[in-house]
Write a structure and sequence with these properties.
CATH class: Alpha Beta
Number of strands: 9
Shape: globular
Number of helices: 11
Radius of gyration: 16 Å
Length: about 210
């Protein structure tokens, strides 16, 4: 297993920061990093994804992993790699994007949903596949069903996953889960609430 994926499998949680401004990302990532969450995905549908990736690296150092998410083109792969992203995540299966990541030697977690898409991604040389959208597709029971025939493929479900559901996905066989707004979003969620919820999440998933 690639060392980046090894770290993700130990952390169990990928924090997805979607359409957040640079200041929000830096502040929230700092809070979550302090409580034990060290893998962050900056989506490329955000306003300044390249600058945000670079800022996180400067401020939080090499103790974190930074992924480039919602990558849909080879040009965005180029931008992500140049910015210093540790891995790339896509919302759908693109063999062209996978090939560009392989060219750079950067781990990619492509999005897929059906068994055919999952196997096609794995056959292209990836080690881990993102199952999206996981919750609408059946949640932990869907992951458990997939792990039957695809026990050698690492799965990372995202989409509609709430903090209280994370352990069930890990128990069903997920390598890690991706979540974002449900953990730290909402106008009424203050720092203390984020910290309390994040600590409970870390404790739950790492007992699995």
């Amino acid at each position: 297993m690639h060392h980046v994926l090894e770290k993700i499998s130990k952390d169990r949680i990928v924090i997805i920061m979607r359409r957040m401004i640079e200041e929000q990302v830096a502040r929230t990532a700092g809070i979550l990093n302090d409580v034990g969450l060290h893998v962050f995905e900056i989506t490329f549908d955000s306003k300044e994804p390249v600058e945000t990736i670079q800022r996180l690296r400067r401020e939080l150092g090499d103790g974190i992993l930074i992924g480039a998410g919602t990558v849909v083109s080879t040009h965005q792969v180029d931008q992500a790699v140049e910015a210093g992203a540790d891995f790339v995540v896509t919302p759908h299966l693109s063999l062209e994007v996978i090939a560009r990541c392989h060219k750079y030697g950067v781990p990619i977690v492509p999005g897929a949903l059906t068994p055919t898409e999952i196997f096609t991604a794995w056959a292209s040389g990836v080690e881990c596949v993102k199952i999206f959208p996981a919750a609408p597709a059946g949640g932990p029971s869907y992951i458990k069903a997939l792990k039957g025939p695809y026990h050698d493929i690492l799965l990372m479900p995202t989409g509609g996953i709430r903090p209280n559901d994370a352990k069930a996905y890990i128990d069903a066989g997920a390598m890690a889960v991706g979540m974002g707004n449900s953990l730290f979003g909402g106008p009424s969620m203050d720092d203390a609430t984020i910290v309390t919820q994040a600590k409970a999440l870390v404790s739950a998933v790492r007992e699995s």
